[in-house]
Amino acid sequence: MTTPKHYQALSQEFQRIYHFQHLQALGDWDQATMMPMGGSHGRAEAMAELAVHIHQLKTAPLLLELLDCADSEPLSPSQRANLTEMRYQTLQANALPSALVQAKTQLTYQCEHAWRDQRKNNDWQGFAPNLTAVIDLVREEAQILGEAQGLSPYDALLNKFEPGTQACQIEQVFNEVKTWLPDLIKQVQQHQASRPHLTIPASSVDKQQALSLDVMSLLGFDFNQGRLDVSSHPFSGGVPGDQRITTRYEEQDFLSALFSTIHETGHARYEQGLPLEWRGQPAGQARSMAIHESQSLFFEMQLARGKGLLSPLTAKVNQHLGTQFTATQLEHLTTQVTPGLIRVDADEVTYPCHIMLRFDAEKALVDGSLSVADLPDFWDNAMQSLLGLSTKDNDRNGCMQDIHWPVGELGYFPSYTLGAMYAAQLRGAIEAQLGNIDQLVSDGKLNRVFEWLQHNIWSKGSLLTTNELITAATGESLNPQHFKRHLFNRYL
Amino acid sequence: MTTPKHYQALSQEFQRIYHFQHLQALGDWDQATMMPMGGSHGRAEAMAELAVHIHQLKTAPLLLELLDCADSEPLSPSQRANLTEMRYQTLQANALPSALVQAKTQLTYQCEHAWRDQRKNNDWQGFAPNLTAVIDLVREEAQILGEAQGLSPYDALLNKFEPGTQACQIEQVFNEVKTWLPDLIKQVQQHQASRPHLTIPASSVDKQQALSLDVMSLLGFDFNQGRLDVSSHPFSGGVPGDQRITTRYEEQDFLSALFSTIHETGHARYEQGLPLEWRGQPAGQARSMAIHESQSLFFEMQLARGKGLLSPLTAKVNQHLGTQFTATQLEHLTTQVTPGLIRVDADEVTYPCHIMLRFDAEKALVDGSLSVADLPDFWDNAMQSLLGLSTKDNDRNGCMQDIHWPVGELGYFPSYTLGAMYAAQLRGAIEAQLGNIDQLVSDGKLNRVFEWLQHNIWSKGSLLTTNELITAATGESLNPQHFKRHLFNRYL
Ligand SMILES: [Zn+2]
Ligand SMILES: [Zn+2]
């Protein structure tokens, strides 16, 4: 077997790109957690220079030549999977003319900037023309990306975040969900109507921080390879060997920081568990946004809101905050279902409604069947039918609430609900193989759950496609019935 | 006047280099303050990649061509100064063959690594061959750098840190100092013998940190353009618009963190005060290591140990730490003169002895008149003659104490004492123009001192040579008499 020298050369190039992406991750994290305001200008310039450099590396003609040569080399299945990912990343970087990339960067920067005030002021008339311009450009982007990959325009956007996933599959899944979810929500509300009202006592940031760190340890976060800090919006950043997660403490609501820490810990453990021998290579990276979200939601929803983990969690809350909650009280507080207008505040049951609405809207915006002018009515109708709420003359809390569209990120929203579904499906597989998860946790065998995830998801990186990964782990493709069963089990 | 288009193109190239240096500064700071141990490997790889990239940018053939073309363009005096700095940096980057640079990186990495244990174990026999190999390579480096600039080998090393300074000038200055300093040290010790003994109460890290931050505000540190953190060795890092300084808290000795914070604040204000209109250009950078140290030592020695600032400083100490010091007590604690073996623990008066010894030694090591084998005897003799102390069989606290030589940084040591001398000379100029500094501070006019430094030093960046800068600010070249007068005034 000859040495695959072109493949080796490619690996080196991607390793180099990865080193600069390491610096990008550091710059982003520092900007959100440590950087004083006065550092913004210099940092923005440095990060822009870095982005240009990474783009140059990814679009170097040498890379395309090497890709073609490597294709005919004798490669192991893993090397071939890596080559596929390399080709995909190269295609994504090369597909768009740089004039379009620059125009989008400028336009979305302006749109986002104006949106921050326009949203506050419920200024739809001001926002609509900006959003129209962004959507027009995104349509152009989708068209070009689609042609390069033989995909429809919207599928091309979807594939930026979920390679291999098509809108028609998601439609099928979501259409089925729409047949039972609105009804389930009503039933759950009736079911929870008799719950006693609980108040949450205030707790200091210091105590909440100690609680967060303690819970991260419980969940196996490796502090030798990461840290917890504070930012205005919680996120997980850094690199696989150095995960930087953040939270935000609200004195009046310790559950906010606690559960966002648990969520980000799920993201971080995925990154910390990515295959070390593939670090720096495309095949060593996290599979997709939905798989990433499946891990954070597995931690936040499947594990932390389950009876097994709620018990030690309640003990830690009481210990650090001096409260006297029972596990049942904490369960009630964290499983309360209340239809609302705001996606990021939504509970586990109503959350998919927010996503399905956005999925329908952005598909229609991209294929031109919905104009930006008609978006408020569309939103109001969908909210009425899904959650029984109106957003009439309240666009601030309707179609203007998210940052995704102002910054031109269409195709991202489905990841959230796909992630929730994958999480439920993974739970099903774990329970089939290891037994009831709450029981495992109660028996002190939480680690067996993590080992399963390490073996079946984390260690696989991008060596398998999303569908291969989920099929290998659970024995079937995406099957939303697990999510349905989970919601019915937990909430009725 | 035609547009100097080659000069403009050069400026853009150096701006680009600066953006990557921004990322380098961030990576270094994060590594020392925030990064968990497990992140080391990935960070080291990313930083090495970045260093290679910066070196490539600095040695691009295009740069040399542009430098030649720009030379004949009509430039303003400031642009010409910038061009001189560009040429200097390019020369430094191009002079050394990359094989030598790589060999030095590897060799010094190994030497430093082994040194950490060898120093602990007082293992001179183990350390000597490693140091010999490093010195041999540094001699080669010095030879090449010297030939490229028409300088003697040692002057070439000196010029890496102090462009334009020659060993013969320093020799002249140091030889004069040797005629009076050993005697002064004895006199000061007698003078201080009757001082009452004071004990330092323990203080918590939190209180010391609040004190540090408060004192930084008093000294005009701009927290919108910087921050204070903790590292195992205090340093100032970051970029001019975002200064990251660090300190280290010892519960048993609050003076350590307090005065290292004041020292680093001096470095940071210099950086924060560099000319905004030249930011990112070689002419906009700090002039030299000695000028940098002159600012930190001006803050730490001239200002903070002076009667003017000691009074508000004492108030803040008492306020934050709950102590009851008088200003005189704090003065006694911070001006105690005690000959010792360790440079970094030395007081203001004995410090130059440590530097003069190292300057003589490294000159002789580079010109071959001193062999590594003879270094311990050389050190012992010099310590005996300068401070009356022996390092016989105590190399750990003698010639093995500093990290500089194991990492191949010869030519750096003189900067410390040149900095102390420049600081005293600047004080002389300020007092000639504005009146007694202690009086100014007592009168609430500390800001006038900072304005003078801003106008005469900080805002000049590298637009002037070191000699031009000091002459413009003080009316004369380096004149060690100011330092002598300062020591006699303060300590006798
Ligand atoms: Zn998430
Ligand atoms: Zn210093």
TrEMBL record, chains A, B:
Pfam families linked to this entry: Peptidase_M32
InterPro entries tied to this protein: Peptidase_M32_Taq
Documented EC number(s): 3.4.17.19
One Gene Ontology molecular-function label: carboxypeptidase activity
Enzyme class: hydrolase
Record bears the keyword ATP-binding: no
The keyword Hydrolase belongs to this UniProt entry's keyword annotation: yes
Domain of life: Bacteria
Recorded catalytic activity of this chain's protein: Release of a C-terminal amino acid with broad specificity, except for -Pro
PROSITE patterns, per database record: PEPTIDASE_M32
Keywords tagged on the record: Carboxypeptidase, Hydrolase, Metal-binding, Metalloprotease, Protease
Family listed: Belongs to the peptidase M32 family.
Role this protein plays: Broad specificity carboxypetidase that releases amino acids sequentially from the C-terminus, including neutral, aromatic, polar and basic residues.
Protein's name according to its UniProt entry: Metal-dependent carboxypeptidase
Organism: Shewanella colwelliana (Alteromonas colwelliana)
